[in-house]
Structure formats: structure tokens, C-alpha cells
Amino acid sequence: MTKNEHEAMIQKLLDKRAKLKEGGGADRIEAQRAKGKLTCRERIDKLLDPGTFQEVMPFMEGRITDFDLDKSRFLGDGIVTGFGKIFGRRVCVYAQDFTILGGSFSEVAGWKVSKIMDMAVQAGVPVIGLSDGGGARIQEGVYSLWGFGELFYRNSLASGVIPQISVELGPCAGGAVYSPALTDFILMVKGIGNMFITGPQVIKAVTGEEVDMETLGGADAHATISGVSHFTAHSEDEAFSMIRHLVSYLPLNNAEQPPAVEPTDDPMRTDKSLNTIVPADPSEAYDMREVINKVFDLGSFFEVHAGYAQNAIVGFARLHGQAVGVVGQQPNFLGGAIDINASDKIARFVRFCDAFNFPIITFSDSPGFLPGVAQEHGGIIRHGAKIVYAYSEATVPKLTVITRKGYGGAYIVMGSKYLRADMVYAWPTAEIAVMGADGAVNILFGKELKNAADPKAERERLVAEYREKFANPYAAASAGHIDDVILPEETRPRLIAALELLRDKQTKLPPKKHGNIPL
Ligand code: HXC
Fold first, then answer.
1. Is 137 touching ligand 1 by the criterion CB < 6 Å?
2. Partners of 329 in the β-ladder
3. CA of residue 104 to ligand 1 center, whole Å
4. Beta strand 185-189 pairing with 194-196
5. pLDDT tens, position by position, 181-240
6. Do domains 3-249 and 272-430+472-501 have the same CATH topology?
7. Which of 62, 179, 313, 441 has the greatest count of CB atoms below 10 A from its CB?
8. How is 445-514 classified by DSSP, letter by letter?
């Protein structure tokens, strides 16, 4: 080979690399920016530690040219795949490039994403997908459908093996939504991320209903109404910093413990303000988020699904540097009653924690399941059962703190000893009973009250008698159904001590192919 030929060979690779960077071309990149969106390569650079991205199969080209598909204009076929690092820890990544045929998912995309997913599972590292595309590439017919099918299959098999995260940075239409839906966490960027099975045009044609894309499947709709998304960001920058933060809590795979950090908060720290956080009046609400923020390492609570089913709280936090999953009721919203959406939210999070070795710390305060025809007909029986199932099958350390109401079913399902919580603590304000005093007196003494000379006074007497017996944790404690009554101020050191004991907890479930959670 001559010197010139050698130089030309090197130049060819450099030219190809330069062409890759051009995506669908300058005009398409300009159009992308006009929509307020970054290019897919800019996105990858912001997600990963600088200089760590290694691209995989960049030069793969599509073979289908039906419908005058002109693929000579670009390289990469609308998807960029590879691996890199987040805070020095390995991850795999794929990103749709909207500047190339609207980021539509092609046969080549199927090959490239399959490769990176297989590598992620074999290497045991999280995979992060950045979506911005028009769904299956229409011109490629069954070949693009194959691509999606391969991705969905891999998402399903990788579930519970490596963390999978989806970031919605543009349209995600049709069957394309099922890849994110199969992953563990979805983050949507407000104003640019949209997810829907059938778009506005199809809806209008089939039902006559007119709806815009944002109302139909924007970030707010999925964060608050459908519960499809777990996080909302207001900009792409915020999105990538949130994803980096999320990854910092997660183990790389299911054989690892969640990463611990050097503790910055005193493990013996007590907080007297917790002693009075539960109001004296049992019908008065308080903010469970405040309890969580005071107990865990300061500033470490990272809430998941914050806008959805706000009667429940789930998220990650740290206890003496150790990452844990936190579940709680929120008395500030629907009185902390458990409804269909809260059931799904809690059960899914508990299962994630169990799959990825997060101890589960539960703060329970619930008057029970939300009554009503809508709840019954919506299947609260089936949905509520998921919480029981999720806690029962979870073999990670499980610690529960009952702060106030532990009534009936809600007491049982929220990490009780019966579902094999390792330690159940109650605050002195805990009320553990089949139901609240008013309801119990109505049922037990309805006839007596009707015939009483002074029904109001008699009612007050009976309620006081019931509260005296059950509106405290000691009946449950004396029967051995809770492990200790603790001062609220000492919750943090008590949880840290119990977690330390249980660090290497060993327990096994009966052998089976898999269970049948009531979906
Ligand atoms: C091929 C597509 C495409 C697709 C968009 N494009 N979607 N090409 N297949 N699925 C192309 C457009 O033709 C256009 O090319 C370029 O991408 C940009 O699209 P625009 O429409 O100009 O952009 P915008 O106005 O921002 O609208 C984006 C959009 C819209 C909302 C995504 O393009 C759209 O509704 N696309 C179709 C969505 C859809 O129904 N997809 C199929 C879903 S079915 P030019 O060259 O003109 O710029 C599916 C089945 C999977 O995914 C099933 C798996 C089980």
C-alpha cells in the first residue's frame, strides 16, 4: 500500500465519522433545534461522563429501499447505540435520532439495539433508552416490526436482571411505547416528550374526539393521570441530571447490592420534632414526606412517581450511606387511604426493590382501602392484592414503622409481620385495630345507641372506651404483633441498627417457575 493509499484509508474513516455526526443533515438538525430539542449525540454526551461514550455498530446500513427510501443521505439509520459511564459506573445506551426519517425504528435499529441489550445483560449493567421517534418505520413493513419485537422480548427478559430506564424526549407513538412500558423507570420531558398508542388523528377518525398531543400523552398526563411515567423534567438538561442521580442509587444488576456512599449524616442523630409531628386530633393530617426527610440521611430522599397516586409515597433514600427503598402513606392526600392507583404504585416499587436488593422501609398510616363503587368496579380487590403479594414475596430486609393508623387491611398489607417484615416498630401514636373508633361503635352498638336515653353521650362514652383499648400500640405489642414501641425521635438510629443486623439476611421462597401476581 502506498503512503497516499494509507492516508486515504485513514481519511475515509474520519469522513465516515464526520458524516455520522451530521445525522440527517444540517436542515434536519436545525428543525430539531427549532422544536427545542437536542440532537441524539448531544443527549448522549450530556447523559454520560465526558469522553466515555463508545459507539457500537455505527456504520450499519439498512437494505430496504422500498417507497424510494433514500438512505445515502445519512449513516446510522436513525439510532445511535453504545456504552459509557455515569459517575464512573458502566451503562449501555441507545438513542433514536429524529433527524433521520423521524427517528423511526428500522430493521437496522432492531439489530443495533438487540446487540446493545444483549451486551448490557451479559455485562450486567443498566440500559438507558432515549426515545424520540415516529414508531415503526412504515416503509420497512414487517422488518421494522421485527426490530421492535426483538427489543420488547429483550426488555421482558432483562426485567429484574439489569435496571432499564427510558427517557422520552420526543414522540413515542404506537407500539413503540411498549419498550419504555416494559422498563423500570420512565422520565418524560415536559413540552417535548409524548407517548400514546393511538395518536390524535387516529382517535379523531375512529371516535370523532378531538384532542391535542400534549393533553393526550404529554408529561403531565402520564405523570399524574395514567401513572405511565415516573419522573418529569422541565428541560433536557434537568432530565439527564435526574437520570444520573437515579442511576447513582441503583446496583448495576440484580447480583449486586445497591451502592453505598460515605455517610455524611450522624447515624445516631435523633430528631425531637418527630415526637409531635403526628397531630393530637386523629382526623388531622400531616406530611409523611416531612417524616421521611427527617429520618433518612439529610437530602437523600429521591421520590419516584411523585405526581401519581399521591396518597402513597415511594422513592429511594440513604440510611447511613446505604441505599434503601422507602414506601409510605401520605395522610395529607385522601387521608392516606389506599386506592387502585396507590396499590399499583406501591406494589410495583416494592417488586423493583426486591429484584434489585434494596431493603424496604415502610411508613404506614392508613385508615384502610378507599371505599366507593368506582373503586370496587375498578378492581380494588385485584389491585390491592398486589401489595400483599409484593411484600410477601420480597426477601430483602423489610422494616416497618407504624406512625398512626394501622386499621384493618391497610395494617396487614403495609409491611406487617404477617407478610414477614423483619422488624415492625410502632410510634406511641399508633392505633392498631380492625377499624377506627367511630365506624366500630356504629357497627357494634347501633341498636344500643338508638335506644339510649342520651345517644350522643352514650356514643362518646363508647368511642372513648374503644379508643382507650385500641387507639394505641400496646394491645398489638402485648400480643407480639409488633416488635417494639419507639419514640419517634429515635426512629433513625433504630432503623440503622436493624438494617445493620439484617445486612446479610438469608431467606428463601418455595421453588416455582414464577408466581401469578394478580395483575
Ligand atoms: C417512517 C416516519 C415515521 C414512520 C415519521 N416519519 N414517522 N417515517 N416511518 N413511522 C418521517 C416523516 O415522514 C418525516 O419525513 C420525518 O419523519 C419527520 O416527521 P414529521 O411528521 O415531519 O414530524 P412531526 O411533525 O414532528 O411529527 C412527528 C410524529 C409524526 C408525531 C412522530 O411524524 C407521526 O405521527 N408519525 C407517525 C406515527 C405513527 O403512527 N407511527 C407508526 C406507529 S405504529 P420527511 O422526510 O418528510 O421529513 C408502530 C407499530 C409498532 O409503531 C408495533 C410494534 C408492536
1. yes
2. 312
3. 6
4. unpaired
5. 999 999 999 999 999 998 898 899 999 999 999 999 999 999 999 999 999 999 999 999
6. yes
7. 313
8. HHHHHHH-SSHHHHHHHHHHHHHHHHSSSHHHHHTTSSSEE--GGGHHHHHHHHHHHTTT----PPP-S-
Structural element, H or E, at residue 172: strand 164-173
Grid cell at residue 40 = 441524539
56: left (phi over 0), alpha (psi -120 to 50) or beta: beta
What Rg, from alpha-carbon coordinates, does the chain have? 27
What sign for the dihedral angle of Cα 515, 503, 257, 232? Answer: positive
> Once rounded to an integer, what is the mean pLDDT over residues 160-168?
98
Separation between Cα atoms, residue 220 and residue 226, nearest integer Å: 9
Measure the CA–CA gap between 92 and 186, rounded to whole angstroms.
16
Ligand 1, atom 50, lies closest to the CA of 175
DSSP 315-367: EEEEETTEEEEEEEE-TTTGGG-B-HHHHHHHHHHHHHHHHTT--EEEEEEE-
The grid coordinates of residue 268 equal 445516631
Distance in angstroms (rounded) separating the CA atoms of residues 110 and 433: 55
Q: Is the pTM of this model over 0.90?
A: yes
Sequence-separated (6 or more) residues with CB below 8 Å from residue 511: none
C-alpha cell, 394: 420480597
Q: Is 368 a catalytic residue?
A: no
Burial class (CB in 10 A: 0-12, 13-18, 19+), 280: exposed
Instruction: State yes or no: is 174 an active-site residue.
Output: yes
Cell 409523611 belongs to 288
Q: Quickly state the pLDDT bin for 52 (edges 50, 70, 90).
A: very high
* Statement: 3-249 belongs to CATH 3.90.226.10: yes
Q: Is 175 a catalytic residue?
A: yes
Q: Give domain limits for the chain.
A: 3-249, 272-430+472-501, 436-470
Atom of ligand 1 nearest to the CA of 28: 48
Contact 253 CB / ligand 1 (< 6 Å): no
Whose Cα sits closest to atom 3 in ligand 1? 134
Q: How far apart are CA 98 and CA 42, in angstroms?
A: 13
Query: Under 8 Å CB-to-CB from 137, ≥6 apart: which residues?
Result: 78, 101, 104, 105, 106, 107, 109, 144
Q: b or e along 53-90 (b: 16 or more beta carbons within 10 Å of the residue's beta carbon)?
A: bebbbbebebebeeeeeebeebbbbbbbbbbbbbeeee
> In this prediction, what percent of the chain has a pLDDT beyond 90?
90
Is 409 known to be catalytic?
yes
For domain 272-430+472-501, the question of CATH label 3.90.226.10 is answered with yes
- Please pick, among 158, 323, 347, 410, the residue that the annotation labels catalytic: 410
C-alpha cell at 37: 430539542
pLDDT at 119: 98
**How far is the centre of ligand 1, averaged over its atoms, from the C-alpha of 102 (Å)?**
6
Q: Do residues 467 and 459 lie in contact, with contact meaning Cβ atoms separated by under 8 Å?
A: no
